[in-house]
Structures are given as C-alpha cells and as structure tokens.
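Morning F.,

Quick status update on the modeling queue. The single chain you submitted on Monday has been processed. Sequence for confirmation:
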Amino acid sequence: MSGSGAQRLSRGALIRQRAKARFVGRRAQLALFSENLSKDPLSEEDPADFLFHVRGVGGVGKSTLLRQWQEAARRADAVTAVVDENDVHGVQQALVELARQLAEQAGPCKEFDKAVEQLRREQAAQAEPMPVEGEASVSSRVMTQAALGAVSLIPGAGVVTAMANPDAAAQGLDRLRSASRSRAPKRGGRGDEAGLSRAFVGELERLCRRQRWVVLFFDTWEQTAQYLDGWLLRLLGEEFGPVPANVIVVLAGRDRLSEREWALLRDQVADVPLEVFTEGETRALLSSRGVVDPGVVEAVLQLSMGLPLLVELLALARPRTAEDVDVGGNLADVAVERFVQWITDPEKREAVRACALPLQLNEDVFTAAAGPSEAGMWEWLCGQPYVSGRGDFKHYHAVVRASMIRQHHAHSPQGWAAAHLRLVDTHATWRTAVEERLPERLRWKDSEWRRHHLDETYHRLCAQPGTQLTTTLEQVVHAAGQETAVLRQWIETLEQAGQDTTDPALLTWTERLRGALSGTEPGLTCLGVLLSHSQLSSESRSWVYTYRGIHLYRGDQDVEALAEFDRAIAHNSRNALAWAHRGEVHRFLGTYDQAVADLTAALELDPTLAWVLGSRGQAHRQAGRYDQAITDLTAALELDPTDAWPLTQRGETHRLAGRYDQAITDYTAALELNPTLAWVLGSRGQAHRQAGRYDQATTDLTGALELDPTDAWPLASRGEAHRQAGRYDQAITDYTAALELNPTYAWALGSRGEAHRQAGRYDQAITDYTAALELNPTYAWVLGSRGQAHQQAGRYNEAITDLTAALELDPTLDWALAFRSQAHRQAGHREEARMDVEQAVDMHPDDLGCAFEKLMLETVEGRFETFREQWCQLLTSSVSSQDEPEASFLRLFQALLIEPENGVPEATAGMLATHPGAGDIAEVVGYLTELALLEGEVGERARQSHGLIAGRLL
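Structure tokens below.
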C-alpha cells in the first residue's frame, strides 16, 4: 500500500473492522451453500441445487445470510447479482439492475444493453410501426389500388408484377396502419419483458461459458414476488431460452412459496428456513461485540428473543448493566431506542433519527435530512448494521425504520411535520432543476424527475395527509397513464405514507388502489377508481378520460375509446393529448379527414408535438395525399432530427408513391440513427425490390432476418424478391420457411402459388392458392391468380369462374379483367372478351397492359392491318420505359408485328433469356398460338417463334 495514497489503518482499527465484519451464527446454512458451490453442476449422481429459498421473519438475518452467500459465491469463482424491493417495481427494472451488477464483474452485457437501448428508443418515441404478418386487409388493398393508380399490365412477367405488387404494397399499408397500435404500446407488458428476458438469458449463457457459477439473489421476496414470481417461473421454464445449468437462483423472503404456482418446481427448491439465534449463537455474537457481562447478556437474551437484528442493535448499544436493557414495551422499539440512546455523539444520534424519514438515502438526501455534519458522518451511517443497499442509494432495515418512524411521529408531531416539509422543499428544488432541462411531455418518462416527484409527494403526505390527498390522487391519475411499473411506484408510495401516518383516508385509498393493481388492466381499473373521488378537478377528470381512452384504444375497443376522448375534451377543450389520440383512433378507423381535423386541433394547442405531426402525415398518406404527408413528416423531423420514426414513415410514404430512391434514402438515414430496426431494413429491401434491384433487396431482407430470425415477413418478402428475379426455387424455399414460422400466413401461401405458376407447375400452384383461400376466402388476388393458373393450363372455364369471383370481391382488379378477357378470347368467347377488355380500358385508358389486350383481340379477329399504327405506337413508345423482361417481350412483338427486319430468331432468344420460368414462357406461347392461326406474314413469324421456343424447351 505504501506510495499508493490509500488510507492507512492501525492494527487496532483492522482488528475492530474484522470483528465487525465477522459473521456469527448460521454456520450450517453457510456450509450448505459453500458445499453446493463445490459440486459439479452437470453431475448426475450428486447434482448441485440450483434454486434456494431462504425464509423467516423480518430481522431474522435473511439479508445478512445472503450477503455471506454472495461472498462465498465470489470466492468460488462466481459472478453474482442481487436485487430487492428498492430495485424492483417491475421485470424491466430488475433485469437492468441484475445486468448492471453482472457487467461490473464480468464486462459489458452488450446484447442486453442493445435490447434495453432499443426498448428505450421505442418508449421515447412512443412508436414503431412493425410489419404485420399475414395478408393485407381488404381496405388496404382497395386503398393501395387507388393510391398506386394504374399498374402496368405487361404480358408475361409484367402481369405477375402488376398482380403481386399492389398486394405487397397493401401489406405495407397495413404495417403503417398498425403504427397507431404501436404509437403508444402497453409498456411493461409481456412483449417488452420477453424481449429483454431473451437478451438476459443470452447474457447468462455467455457468462456461464466463462464462469463456474452465475448466482442471482432476490431479496425481500415477500415484496418483489408480486412483480417477479410469474416471470421467474417462466424463466426457469425456459420460455426465454435454455437457462445454463450453472445458474443458481436464491430467493429470500418471509413466507413460503405459493403451493399452486410453484408445484412443478417444489421438489427442486432447497428450502432454508431461518429460525432465531440459538442461545449459543447469541452469546457468540455478543462476545464478538465485546458484551460479556453475564447480567447484560441475560437481559439481551430475554429482550431480543434471539432475533439477530435486535441482538446486533443491543450489542452495538454497549449496555454496561442489565438495567440498561429495558425489557418492557415493543421488542423492536426497545432495541432501537436503546441503540440510539447509547450513541454517545449527539450529532450522530440526531442524524440516525432524522435519516429514518426519507424512503431512500444518498449523501445529498442525508445532508438534507440531517443537516450539515462533520466529515465522515455519511460513511459512518452507511457502516451501521441496519443500513444496506447497492449502487447509488441506501435504506434503513424495514424493522428499524418502522420503529424510528413510530417514535418520531408519536413523540413530536410538530417536529415530524416540520422535518417532512423541509424534505418536501428539498425534493421540490431538485425536481424543478430537472424540469428546467426537460420538456413537460417527457417528464413522466424521466426516472430522476419521477424519483424527486415521488419523494416530494411522500413527504408532503406525511406532513399534511388531510390536505394533500386530492393533489396526490391527481398525480396518481397521471401515473396511471404511464407503464404499470410507474403506477405501482406511486401506489406503493401512497401506501407507505398511509402506514407511516396511520391516516384513515390514506389507508382506505391505498387499499382500493392496491386492489385495482391486481387485475389484468391495472391502469384502466385504477382510473375508474379515481373517478369516484368527488374532489377531482375538471382538468384532472379530463386526464382520467384521456388515459382511459388510450387504454381502451390499445385494447382494440375503438368505439369505447372515442367516447372517452369525447368526455375528456368536454371537460377540458384545451387537452391537446385528448385531441391527438382521438385523431389517432379516427385514423385507425379510416376516417382520415376527421383524423386530420383532430390532429390539427392538437397541434394548434401544442405545436411542439412532433409525433402528432407525424401521425397527421400518416393520415394524409393513408388518404393518398402523399405530398401533404411528406410536408408533415418533414416538419416532425425538423422538431426532432434524432427521431428515426418520422424518417421511417417518410420513407414509407415515398415508397408507396413509387419514389423508391427517396424512400431508400430515408430508410438508410433511419437505420443510421437506429441500426436495430429490422422492419426498416426489410422495408428498404422492399423498396429495392419494387425498383427492380432484386439482389440489393435480398441483401437487406437477409439483414432483417438476422436481426429477427423469428419474423416470417422478411422471409416471405425475400421469397418475393427471388420470385420477381426469376429464382423460383429459391423463392419457394423462402416462402416455405415463412410458412413454417407462421402456417396461417395466407399471403406467403398465395405467393408460393405464384412462384409455382410462373415455374409452370400449375397443379402445385392451384393447391397453394386453394389453401390460401381456405384461410381467407375474400382474398381476391389469390382467386384471380388461381384463375390465371387454370388459364395457362388450358382450363378456360375454370379460369373464367375464378376470375369472375375475384372481380366480384374486388371490382378494381383491372388485371383480372384483362386475364378474363384473354381466357374468353382463347375459349372462343369473342363478345365476352371484347366487353371485358373495353371495361378494362375504360377503367385505365393509359394503361399499357389493357391497351395490349385490346389490340390482341382486334388482331386475332383479323383486323391487324387496321390497327397496325396503334401497335407501332404502343410498342415503340413503351420498350424503353420497361425493365428487361417486359422490354424483351415487347421487342419480340415488334419483330412479329411491325419490324420483322429486327429478326424473329434474335428477338425470341432475347425473350427466352429473360423469362426463366416455364409459366412465364407458357404465357408467351399462348399469345403466339393465337397469332399463329392468322394468315400471312404475322402468322408465319408467330409460327417460327413458336417453333423456336418449342425446340429450346425440348
């Protein structure tokens, strides 16, 4: 130590320090745990126990034993972590604290940190639209048809593109519509827990590869079990992944584990009941503390009844005679009073009493409670046996604190109130300092602000319970609008104030609110309870209805949510959040103009609400007003350039508008802000796919899958990219893998049918189409695609039946009209063919595919020369604007019909090179078959091309 600058201790100080730290008693329990650590975790003959439950009354020494077990574990090359009621108000907080302690010993928990950061970003933005697995909704398909306008109906592969892309785009629209659900998700729910828990189990697996043991301690289980009991059972049941064999879990609490919930693991629990100290253990502890006078020892034995905490406190009081140990009154109160009384330094004595008032202590709170003190006073207090805690905060043992609180409240009510009010002012000052750097709408998300606000509320209630009840309940209203863990903290603070003041009204409200917490919808239930308080202000009632509306909306009760928002606005027309969320419900219900009106009203009240600007942008986009959507989303970004959400939404808007490069730019910028957004990477892949860049699409969709291998959507979308690139077998592999993840994924079934059809496997295609229709009988594009498969297989009547049924479901399917026209024409139903194609042209007079089908009808009826000029204009103007498969098809028809000098053999070979699927080629062959029946040069060239194709296929 010499030269290190470390503080030197005398030999006497070292002796006193070691004597204080020596653990007296519980030798059998310590030996039990040490022996377990020496075992092989994988041994079949004598396996180590992995689940311990230490139980006993308060003050019996459970926490002390856990500290000794933790030291033993670390000596056995274990990494350890411990949480108690001060760390835990929900699963997320417990996991974060456990991971923090593990990281201090074994290095960063990087994957868990990523999961936490991702969740925090979602909570900060209150939104992340996620892909919806399954088919697009009917309303989204109709919306997409209107938004995208006429889709090119180029014969050949182009027909497939026209048929598939609108539905894929509609799925994208459904994903965007789902944003209203994820804009304000149920935080602290099982979805959040599962993601963090999987990441935590992954870190345990990593640590267990390097460490002999990982030991997780859960103290004060009587308190924390209400949040962690079910989660721990799910963890041990490996719902979040395999838990390594060298993980040990230790629980410590007053009560036995629940018989019903723990029945399956009952035989695996090593039960460690702690009784009070034996007479021998008590004498040994007293001797180690220098208490050896026989009369004093006997008095301590009688008063403490062997409860270790009381024995320790009485020993530290240094009684000189038996009369110094009073045997009357409450045991804990007497022990605490004697301990405090025999602290000879009056400043220390008053500091001990004063610091019992705060719920938790750090050096700043200590100074505020005890006042300025001599150097080292805080360190002295932290060294007392009744003070414990990890990290930034310490707290008194519950038994000691309760005793000191009772004495202070009973002996000096005025001093009690004045002390609490001083702490009110202190925490109010600290809270105000946080507010100066934090926008109002973000305060409830900030843990430091909440901590000061909670402590301020507690001390105010303790000082003036009668006058502060309504104000506190109005705060609970806002807490009920947050995640359940925050609401629970507020109710627990109310409960603590009720216990410490014994105020009847506080105790009654605590009981009512605590009961509401136990239901499946604690926030909604608590808000209903709060409405019964007659003294709530109109503004607070507006907030109650607002938060109730949000809860109902998240629960898919949209009509009920609208009614709550109406009530909220009626109580306070300046409640911007109520206007905003009513707009969100209208947007989800598809009443976009009403949504825009409500969202605009919210922005007039608070122009800084970036997410409301973004939501109005979504409403404009869903109504097909892309430019207005872009304006709003850009304005949202200007308010907060660090928020990835409006970037993703603007990217989606550009994609739906067909501006793929601009979409990709926005997606890329969003991924730079948050590289973990799997759905954004997948959407960028979609944009690449729709732009015809299939390899880049495949790369992005593969990246999305690496981020989330359990998501069927990027798998199916990658299959779509393969299919459009003509890689049908790879497409089918991906669609099949997606269906293994989600067997009810009707869109993937239909798309796999498309891949089979384009590959010429018509029966397999029809099987998949039929299965998709069994899942969703209203799936119009699948019906139409099955009709196309029948048509290409030469079953024209079946084709007409399916295409007619598809058009009855969705009259906007112009491509189905075109195919039915073709099927009628090939079946010899010329009049029906003409009616269909003319209707298609009327619907989309500028559409290339419809114009093509109309000219084909005129040509096969022998009027080619009459329409030669129209053919020339159509083909010449369109070749350069199409991608290669469609362009090669058009060049073949140029050679067949208007420019034979270009060479039919060369054009046929070019078409074959870009149409790899038998189904695609069969479609071309169908046209050639019709043209080959014509007399003259056109028929001759069609027969030549037909023969070349047949030869190649053979």
